[in-house]
TrEMBL record:
GO MF term list: signaling receptor activity
Recorded topology in the membrane: Single-pass membrane protein
SUPFAM superfamilies noted in UniProt: Immunoglobulin (SSF48726)
Subcellular location: Membrane
Name of the protein: Cell surface glycoprotein CD200 receptor 1-A
A cellular component annotation (GO) from this entry: external side of plasma membrane
Amino acid sequence: VGDSSVLACPLKPNINMLTWKIYPKVGGPCNLGYRADTNTTDRTNCSDSMNWKFRPDLGPVLEIQQVGIAQEGNYICEVVTPEGNFHRTYHLTVLVPPRLSLFCDEHGKPVCEAAAGKPPAQVSWLLESNSSLEEESHDNGTATVLSRLTACDTNVTDTTCVVFHPAGSWSESIAC
C-alpha cells in the first residue's frame, strides 16, 4: 500500500491495438486503449492513479501510483499484432503492514496488537506460549490481531512480542 506498481504488457513489433482491461474489487471496470491506425489513446472509467500513455517507442507498461486497497483486482493486457493476439493477466494483491503496539493491560499482563494489517498478521511471544488471540476484521479488508499473554514466567522481566507479516516482521519488548 502506498507504493507504485508497474505492470508490463508483452512487447511485440507492429502493434495494431493495445488494451488494458482492469477489474478492481471495488468499483466498476476500467479500460485503457491505444489504436495504431489513428495513433490515439482512450480511457474509460479509470482513476487518475492509472498512469498510462502508450507510445510505440516505449514499452507498454501501466503504472499505478500510490497503490491502495481499492486498486486490488485483475489487470488484463491484450496486444493485437499481425502475428496474433497476446495476453498477460495480473492479479494485484495489496499488502498493508500492521501497526504494532505493545502495552500492559489493567491486570499487568502484556498485550500485543498488530492493527489494520492485510492479510492479518501472525502474533507470537518470544519464550512464552500461554496466550489468547483475538482477530477483528474491518470493512476495508484489513484486520487487527490482539494477543494477550495469560501467564508469564516469573523469572523473565521483559517479554517480547513478535509480529510476522508478508510486508515484514517486527518485535518489541515490554516489562509489565
